[in-house]
Automatic annotation (TrEMBL):
It comes from Nitrosomonas marina. Residues 23-122, 386-471 form the Plastocyanin-like domain. It comes from the Bacteria. Keywords: Metal-binding, Oxidoreductase. It is an enzyme of class 1 (oxidoreductase). This is Multicopper oxidase CueO. Its EC number is 1.16.3.4. GO terms for molecular function: copper ion binding; oxidoreductase activity. The keyword tRNA processing does not apply. It catalyses: 4 Cu(+) + O2 + 4 H(+) = 4 Cu(2+) + 2 H2O.
Length: 472
């Protein structure tokens, strides 16, 4: 993979580029190639740095040894090479890879150091899901362009606190994406590859979303949702059946309007215009070009899942905390910002255990040393608004499951998002809305060493909203 710093907008066919499972096909454009793997396959990847910044790549969602995980401690410099070797040990699903360089993740991912990974396995094969041209990857990103049509990353302290929000929605690197389809069933693999934008996915004609897969695998059975919240780094696989639709008809996948994303704070910070978090806009258009008779039937059952519950916990009385807080105008996890080699005050987790983890917001809003700045003429003030931003929390290593999700504040904002969370299935990233308190269950099997957990709002991550777990 040659990290390309191309910033032109190229056209991209939108089709999944496939060959034998181990092949790599390059997408023309700023994104990296799609890597198609099979479970059990051993891979070796030569990663070269030919740019003027340090880089390292992380395989988001894959269960790999610590040295292969793309921890920023392994970043390489111009002219250097990193050789990754690992075995694909994840169920069939959609994963991705992206730059994970110390304090440069946001800008490097923005410039294109990211790409999709598909993993296939035998259980999935049996389902005979739509494939080839009927399987469409949708990498959703928001970008801003200069007048010369070059990618433009907008800096500034306030923007970093909010997270970057672009004004143009791209699918697979292309604006105004339209996909010609036949009147039959499709498998859509969606990745939110944006730095900080959260999408509320819905079809424009009100058709419910049929979800067949989450971050780390297919579901046991398809589930329908009126809409699905997709935070940065999350993936969702949809079954979309266009059968019965007339030739020439069009359907648009949209991001619907919602509240609680921090748009009010954006306005306070002077970020007017553009595309605020929570605004509604079209994402991609599907246009029926051909009527066909037969379609695939949606399977009633998908794949068996190893269901984790409280009784699987290694130490049922222990809960590992991930507390979201803020101090000195920096977001923190468990009262700290990132320290590369932090061995002290970090969560130590014995290997080959299953842990309960609670992700929640700091209770106290202010107090000495808490940054201050509360109140003021504009109500809750900047500080209070910062404390009520959503954070997509991601944990490296194995996929987890959600045990419970609780909203502690009665809020009308939450009403606008609450039906869009997928409770079942494997996850590696969970969106924590303001006021939410979430319990997850996660195995820490096979590998020891420092693994990361962080906010996947990439600006937050680069500001230090990241920590190490020491698995020993
Ligand atoms: Cu996709 Cu550490 O992240
Ligand atoms: Cu990751
Ligand atoms: Cu965050």
């Amino acid at each position: 993979i040659l990290p390309g710093a191309h910033t032109h907008v190229y056209q991209y066919s939108g089709k999944l580029l496939k060959g034998p499972a181990h092949t790599v096909k390059t997408i023309p454009g700023y994104l990296g190639p799609i890597l198609n793997f099979e479970r059990g396959q051993k891979v070796r990847i030569f990663f070269y740095n030919r740019i003027a910044e340090p880089v390292i790549t992380h395989w988001h969602g894959l269960h790999v040894p610590q040295k292969m995980d793309g921890h920023p401690m392994y970043e390489i410099f111009n002219g250097e090479r990193f050789v990754y070797e690992f075995e694909i040990d994840n169920p069939a699903a959609t994963y991705w890879y992206h730059s994970h360089t110390h304090e440069m993740t946001a800008t490097q991912v923005y410039q294109g150091l990211a790409g999709l990974i598909t993993v296939r396995d035998a259980a999935e094969q049996k389902l005979e899901l739509p494939t080839d041209e009927y399987e469409i990857p949708l990498i959703i990103q928001d970008r801003t362009f200069t007048r010369g049509n070059q990618l433009q990353y907008l800096h500034g302290r306030h923007r970093r606190m909010m997270g970057f929000l672009g004004d143009t929605i791209l699918i697979n690197g292309q604006a105004n994406a339209t996909f010609p389809v036949k009147s039959r069933a499709y498998r859509l693999r969606l990745l939110n590859g944006s730095n900080s934008r959260i999408y509320k996915l819905g079809w424009d004609d009100g058709t419910p979303l049929t979800v067949i897969g989450t971050d780390g695998g297919l579901l046991e059975a398809p589930e329908t949702f009126p809409y699905v919240m997709l935070a940065p780094a999350e993936r969702v696989e949809l079954w979309m059946d266009f059968s019965g639709r007339e030739k020439g008809s069009e359907l648009t996948l949209q991001s619907l309007g919602y509240k609680g994303g921090g748009a009010r704070m954006g306005r306070m910070g002077g970020m007017r215009g553009g595309l605020p978090q929570g605004k509604s806009f079209p994402i991609a258009k599907f246009s029926v070009k051909e009527r066909v008779g037969e379609s695939h039937q949606l399977p009633k059952k998908l794949v068996p899942i190893r269901q984790l519950s409280a009784k699987d916990l290694t130490s049922p009385d222990r809960t590992v905390p991930i507390e979201i807080g803020m101090r000195h105008m920096l977001f923190q996890l468990n009262d700290q910002t990132f320290g590369m080699y932090d061995h002290q005050n970090i969560e130590r987790i014995p290997v080959n255990t299953i842990q309960k983890i609670r992700i929640f917001h700091e209770g106290r809003m202010s107090g000495s040393g808490r940054g201050g700045g509360m109140g003021g003429p504009r109500g809750m003030g900047m500080m209070g608004m910062m404390l009520s931003l959503p954070h997509p929390i991601h944990l490296h290593g194995q996929q987890f499951q959600i045990l419970s999700r609780k909203q502690n504040e009665s809020s009308s904002d939450y009403e606008t998002v609450k039906d869009g969370f997928i409770h079942n299935g494997w996850k590696d990233t969970v969106l924590v809305m303001p006021g939410e308190d979430i319990e997850i269950i996660k195995p820490f099997e096979d590998y020891t060493g420092l693994y990361l957990y962080h906010c996947h709002n990439l600006e937050h991550e680069d500001l230090g909203m990241m920590r190490n777990f020491d698995v020993y």
